[in-house]
Specification:
The complex is a heterodimer of chains A (622) and B (73). Chain A is of the alpha+beta class and 622 residues long. Chain A has 21 helices and 22 strands. In chain A, strands 10-22-21-20-11-18-19 form a 7-stranded mixed β-sheet, sandwiched between helices. A 6-stranded antiparallel β-sheet of chain A has the order 2-1-3-9-4-7, with no helix packed on it. In chain A, strands 12-17-16-15-14-13 form a 6-stranded antiparallel β-sheet, sandwiched between helices. By secondary structure, chain B is an alpha+beta fold. In chain B, strand 2 and strand 3 form a beta hairpin. Classes of the chains: A alpha+beta (622), B alpha+beta (73).
Chain lengths: 622, 73
């Protein structure tokens, strides 16, 4: 609690106790009674009265404090001329202040909680000084290329490359992923990860301000500044709501009184209107809901760049995917080994040896499939033949690894394979004799299928996949994942055209999901661009509206579900608060609701709306 | 030019009023008040000195909501 909140709480308690005590003390003299009731009234309401006075001075007739002051002073006046009941005026002021206090407390609390969720800001960086001792410095002062030391349990403060040490990193603050990631010397590390064990020396590659952690913090902190339609609606509504209610109150006080002559009744009803005229309950719950929704999402590794994007995301009807790197891993893996004469292991073994000195993606995938490549075998005269493949002498056997052309060149006769392959086929020959082939292909991510299913279940009407890859490969992936529409063999601008075609159909909001590396134009063209696997990729963070920190496609469905929950809460709050206010106004005009009910309803609605808004924070189980 | 200032305000509607007041100040192209993070970002018109404009923004904000503060660095 802040100092101000503590002080106000004390005032509220004192006033409440005094008021309750006065109710039980019978006082005959009206003026004495008034004087006594003024004590709790002024205790709890003096600042409102002062503000009201300043409001008049600044010509702000619709200032809440001013209206509250009129309502309560009016109620006191009615008491003086009428039944001598002053409890109501004190109670209205008291409850108004309770509401204000609760609002300030709840907002402060959630502000703190949500900021704690996003607490990835490193406070210091360790630098070894000349004596070899560690010194803590402000990360802002660390220059590019400096070696920083990250001890176990500390956050990596700045992006960089490990020069010494190995460890596992907890990336959960960034990705929501709880599995630690193992890193070795030479690996790139990004700021915000926590070093779990071992000592790391990292050469920084960026300044603190350009590091991932700063970028993310900046993005999340500014997210709720991009206001959604709902927020704009509510602030416009608030702008007309208060004046409308105040004028209705005036009308209500004068016109019926002229006809009936019953001034006291109608002025009292008008004062009830003023009590309900404060729009704060409406106004607070909407940004709070969005703030909580964005906070909850970022805890899950989903960064939403603005309340407006959360709103659009919730209306998504079509999801367009990029294939490589989004639905598939984007890394080639050996998916089939079909040997002739030799056995599977020998075939892979020989192929891996030939590729020993190559860094081609195909070579890497062969080497990673045969884990123990660097054994005692002699590999000599490795030679790269452009457009064909690689050949080398392995234990004095000439091994060729390459495409059909290469096999033809060395005179090896390819055996037709009975299987249908959708990947790249690599043929292998030994001393000019064909010994089999290995298929490598991009594999579908393990969660892609479930992600597509979840999307359909959550009401996405159409899924589309765009890829630059061949039709055969694209159709196979789409078939396996049950994707509705596939467009293959597209150039980058072809992807933009396809997305534009879908947009022109006007069949609801279209989201595009890509890995952000070369999708920037498409990401920004779609109604909403989602970039995934964005850890460390600045281009993606810039171009997308929603950023998924890791590359798990299941998060796409999750992001949409989070946005829907948040919007549901926003709408509940809007209609619930407006509904109750209007109901109170009608009941107040009819004389059914008195000031007590009005203030209870007003404060109650706000408490419920605020609590409901905080619900948007809980997204774990979606 | 765009600048962000830390603010202090108690209620959400007052934040909206501050936003309106800031927008109407001469030299301000656009202003957004974020009640949740208590920040005001102001985009200035060309040829205006932010420091002077902000003095007026503060004055106008004080008019609509007496109990507010803008921390001008």
């Amino acid at each position: 609690m802040t100092k101000k909140q503590k002080k106000n709480l004390t005032r509220i308690i004192i006033s409440a106790v005094l008021m309750t005590a006065l109710i039980f003390i019978p006082i005959e003299n009206k003026w004495l009674k008034l004087a006594l009731y003024m004590i709790p009234y002024l205790t709890v309401g003096y600042d409102i009265l002062i503000k009201a006075f300043k409001g008049i001075k600044n010509l702000q007739p619709f200032d809440e404090c001013f209206l509250m002051a009129i309502a309560t002073v009016g109620a006191i006046a009615v008491g003086i001329w009428g039944d001598g009941d002053f409890v109501e005026a004190v109670a209205v002021m008291l409850f108004y202040q309770i509401g204000e206090w609760f609002q300030s407390y709840a907002v402060g609390k959630s502000r703190k909680n949500i900021s704690a969720l996003m607490d990835i800001r490193p406070d210091y960086a360790n630098i070894e000084n000349d004596d070899g001792e560690l010194e803590q410095v402000d990360p802002d002062e660390v220059e590019i290329g400096t070696i920083i030391v990250v001890q176990s349990g500390e956050k990596i403060p700045i992006d960089g490359v490990i020069v010494e040490g190995e460890s596992s990193l907890n990336t959960s603050a960034l990705t929501g992923e709880s599995m630690p990631r193992n890193v070795l010397a030479g690996d790139e590390v990004i700021s915000g990860c926590i070093n779990l064990n071992g000592l790391l020396k990292v050469r920084t590659t960026k300044e603190f301000g350009e590091s991932t952690v700063s970028k993310i913090l900046d993005l999340v902190e500014n997210a709720s500044s991009k206001k959604s339609k709902s927020e704009n609606f509510i602030s416009k509504f608030a702008r007309i709501y208060t004046p409308t209610v105040v004028f209705s109150a005036l009308v209500l006080a004068i016109i019926p009184s002229i006809f009936t002559g019953n001034w006291a009744t109608w002025i009292y009803r008008a004062l009830t209107f003023l009590v309900i005229s404060c729009p704060c309950a409406l106004v607070i719950s909407i940004p709070l809901s969005f703030f909580a929704g964005i906070g909850g999402a970022s805890k899950e590794g989903i960064l939403v760049k603005g309340s407006n994007y959360l709103e659009i995301l919730s209306k998504t009807k079509t999801v367009v995917f990029d294939k490589t790197g989004t639905l598939t891993k984007g890394v080639f893996e050996v998916t089939a080994i079909h040997p002739e004469i030799v056995d599977e292991n020998t075939l892979l073994h020989l192929a891996a040896h030939v590729e020993r000195y190559s860094n081609h993606p195909i070579a890497l995938s062969l080497k990673s499939a045969y884990s123990n490549e660097n054994d005692g075998c002699h590999v000599m005269k490795a030679e790269n033949i452009a457009g064909q493949g690689v050949k080398a002498l392995v234990n004095n056997n000439m091994i060729c690894v390459g495409n059909e052309k290469m096999m033809k060149a060395v005179g090896a006769e390819i055996q037709k394979c009975p299987h249908e392959h959708s990947g790249t086929v690599i043929h292998v020959s030994r001393n000019g004799k064909y010994i089999g082939h290995i298929v490598i292909s991009d594999v579908i991510k393990p969660t892609s299928k479930q992600a597509l299913k979840e999307l359909k279940k959550s009401g996405i009407k159409k899924t589309v996949m765009l890829t630059g890859d061949s039709k055969k490969v694209a159709d196979k992936v789409a078939g396996e994942l049950n994707i509705d529409e596939v467009h293959s063999e597209l150039l980058p601008e072809g992807k933009v055209n396809e997305v534009e075609k879908i947009l022109s159909e006007k069949s609801g909001v279209t989201a595009f999901v890509g890995d952000g590396i070369n999708d920037a134009p498409v990401l920004s063209r779609a109604d909403i661009g989602i970039a995934m696997g964005a850890m460390g990729s600045d281009a993606a963070i810039e171009a997308a509206d929603v950023v998924l920190m890791d590359d798990d496609p299941i998060k796409i469905a999750k992001a949409i579900k989070i946005s829907r929950k948040c919007m549901r809460i926003v709408n509940e709050n809007i209609w619930f608060s407006i509904g109750v206010k209007i109901a109170c106004l009608i009941l107040g005009a009819l004389g059914i609701a008195n000031m007590w009910i009005a203030i209870f309803a007003d404060v109650g609605v706000m408490v419920i709306a605020v609590l409901n808004a905080i619900r948007a924070l809980f997204v774990k189980k979606l | 030019m765009k600048k962000t200032y830390k603010i202090e305000v108690d209620c959400a509607n007052c934040a909206n009023k501050m936003e309106d007041a800031a927008k109407k100040t001469e030299g301000v192209k656009n202003a957004v008040v974020n009640f949740m993070t208590l920040k005001m970002s102001v985009e200035f018109e060309e040829g205006y000195e932010p420091k002077e404009v902000m003095q007026n923004v503060l004055k106008n904000c004080k008019k609509v909501e007496d109990d507010c503060e803008i921390y001008l660095k």
